[in-house]
Amino acid sequence: MALVTTKGMFERAYKGGYGIGAFNFDNLDIMRAVLQAAQNKKAPVIMMVSGGAWKYMNPLYIRAMCDAAAKEFPDVEFALHLDHGKTVELCKAAVDAGFTSVMIDASAYDFEENIRQTKEVVEYAHARGVVVESELGAIAGIEDDVCVEDGYGVFTHPKQAKEFVDRTGIDSLAIAIGTAHGAYKFKPGTKPQLRFDILDEIAALMPNFPLVLHGASSVPAEAIELLNKYGGKMEAAIGIPESMLAEACRRGVCKINVGTDIRVAFVGAMRKALHDHPEKFDVREFFTPGREAITKLIEGKIDGYLGSAGKAVCD
């Protein structure tokens, strides 16, 4: 199956009350591991490239890797997405490089400037058959001492979200309801909280419109324990419980972004292999366990709250 946009995926996900997994990858091994899980579970996925990964892998290779993967995994429906494109120029470059979806992240600017930049990307991308995601509100952690005197604070304001979508013509919107980027989302001893009341308000104002959650890694404790057991020094981290993510999907979230969980699983498995086999020096001996760990991780997420066989049959 050739690469696709997210339109069909999101339509089915919204109707079915499940989410599409969007997974960051930084190399060929991670990409193949995710797609192997998708093939095993007959699930659609979104392969994401961050700005840092864009530089690390070199855009000359990224689309070519995905075209090869489409041949290796012919039954998997997947999109190639630019995650957090911080400039209009980067988003346009990703469109030109063959990405099927791009995210313009101008959320650091004021509302009107965010709209202006987003509209420019939408016009460029739509003319070339590419879909666009944008972000409204602050995807922040508990460390930021969020002020919510007006009931919303730095979270996404529902009425503003509708105005933003209407004025920009975007295809999906990343909203801020309590998720956070990175591994250290919440202080130890605190309970993660998502503002489902805000999500419900947004979904009611924009029925059938695809919503996105960034910073949605669950950061399993056992993954950190494995990494630290074999030489890592990662501090305790608290992520988003997958039960909360499943609830968000039932309420209108169609795309769940995951990056940290993948990196922790990959590095933990590699550290174990390096520890167990100090006599080996073939890199394939160490990358293979990392790939297998990611495939197992993604399969678990698909079974838990993402689209899988019987729920998200590819067209």
Would you give an account of this structure?
By secondary structure, the chain is α/β, with parallel strands linked by helices. 47% of the residues lie in helices and 13% in strands. The protein contains twelve helices and eight strands. The protein has an eight-stranded parallel barrel, surrounded by nine helices.
List keywords for this structure.
globular; 315 residues; eight-stranded parallel β-barrel; alpha/beta
Quick summary of this structure?
By secondary structure, this protein is α/β, with parallel strands linked by helices. It has twelve helices and eight strands. It starts with 6 loop residues before the first helix and ends in an 11-residue tail after the last helix.
